[in-house]
Amino acid sequence: MGSATREALASARAALTASAVSGASLAVGEELFSASRVIGSSSQLLQAIADPGAENAAKVALVDSVFGSALSAPAQQLLRTIASSRWSEQDDVLAAIEEIGLRAIADSAPSGTGLEQELFAFGTAVASNSELELAISNKLGSASAKSALVASLLSGKASDQTVAIVNQLVQQPRGRRIGELLRHAATIVADEAGFGIATVTSAVQLAPAQLQRLAAALSGSYGRELRINQVVDPAVLGGLRVQVGDDVIDGSIASRLNDVRIQLAG
């Protein structure tokens, strides 16, 4: 992430928490998602908004002219903030709109909803069904068909917030696979709620007491609360593989055996 994008994201996050837009809601997040799809569908519009040489006032005026009264006041203000910022890359604009939309939706979820757990569960279900994964990820599939599929799978089984998030991800993947999309979204909604996620892969299901001790140890190491998403994969043979963000701690037997093979081959 470039320094310009880092600063611009900080401004957008601050705008989300500012008093003027304190009424962040599911609707605001969905409006930002919709705006992102419109901007992403027009290379000229995206280029104009991301143009570092353009005047901020001109970019804000462009956003207002395109979206007009289609956006609520909070969504419009957030989009103006993003448009008037300087971004390192064009795609960073779309990434920022997506992130602020995710955070707005996370803020709207009732306490205890567990959006990150719902996203993780959906990702697990998709990963275990190759036909479903193909239907969701197929580049030739229409956005409307994917949206309908998400609705049929999640409506009544997951929160409205999770349905809205997954609906956006499948309609505007921006070159990312569904598993990556869901992990990224879960990380952001967890961060907005004040904690991080550790994905732990083991050959067998860990006992609740083991998970609690592991969560406490990892939280102490990273200096913030971490909650565990567990993946059971017999292929690891034994031991644990832990991923927190970009950090990977691979203590699995499969990894050790692979290291031995590499040494023997050398």
TrEMBL record:
Transmembrane segments: none annotated. It is a peripheral membrane protein. Keywords: ATP synthesis, Cell membrane, CF(1), Hydrogen ion transport, Ion transport, Membrane, Transport. Pfam families: OSCP. InterPro entries: ATPase_OSCP/d_CS, ATPase_OSCP/dsu. It comes from the Bacteria. It is found in: Cell membrane; Membrane. PANTHER family: ATP SYNTHASE DELTA CHAIN. Belongs to the ATPase delta chain family. This protein is part of the stalk that links CF(0) to CF(1). It either transmits conformational changes from CF(0) to CF(1) or is implicated in proton conduction. F(1)F(0) ATP synthase produces ATP from ADP in the presence of a proton or sodium gradient. F-type ATPases consist of two structural domains, F(1) containing the extramembraneous catalytic core and F(0) containing the membrane proton channel, linked together by a central stalk and a peripheral stalk. During catalysis, ATP synthesis in the catalytic domain of F(1) is coupled via a rotary mechanism of the central stalk subunits to proton translocation. This is ATP synthase subunit delta. It comes from Microterricola pindariensis.
